[in-house]
Amino acid sequence: MSLQLDPDTVAQYLIDSPHFFEEHAELLAKIRLSSPLLGRAVSLQERQMEVLREKIKVQDLRLADMMRNAQENDASSHKLHAWTRSLLLARNDVDLPHTLVDGLRTSFGVPQATLRLWGVAEDYSHTWFAAEASEDAKIFANGLSLPFCGSNNDFEAAAWLEHDVQSVAMLPLRNTSSGAAVSATFGLLVLGSPDPQRFSADMATDFLVQIGETASAALACLLE
């Protein structure tokens, strides 16, 4: 009677016998494996080469993806630098809001951008950026721990923009220099687009957080 070996037993034997193929090297040339790529049986060496090629292909794709992300991050970093520089070069305080939103449109290709500030100094109380914002809008801004991104569900802040706003990003503006445990929210920066996917709900907000923090620091000089 022939002995039926359990595949697991054979596998464990080969694991426990690392010198088996050294002692039976001729078997390596005789072993045939099925190839999902070629659709036929191939030698062990050929199958190992296929596996290696697939690993290299996956690594190449990952490397290309990493390089693309690095290039995009580098481009965004340059844009942020240029935008921040434009804020530092603003001739006077009242020019800052216009310079800020105009820079977002031109540097970052944002179709529409605007902002509202509350609690501004008396000298700026009649400016466009100090226009009335409802208590609901202020409560909404105060409740944002991160920028909001998503579809325009008839938000009041979206109405501050021009027509045809399908997606929005809303960034709370907070005064971090007050020394309070919780930073006071003093405004809302609103970005809008006719493209429903431009500011999608699942997009990363790290870069928007930096924009919001920079805008907050620049505009704090307009407060009472």
UniProtKB/TrEMBL annotation:
Gene3D superfamilies: 3.30.450.40. InterPro entries: DUF484 (IPR007435), GAF-like_dom_sf (IPR029016). It holds the Pfam family DUF484. This is DUF484 family protein. It comes from Collimonas fungivorans. The lineage of its organism: Bacteria, Pseudomonadati, Pseudomonadota, Betaproteobacteria, Burkholderiales.
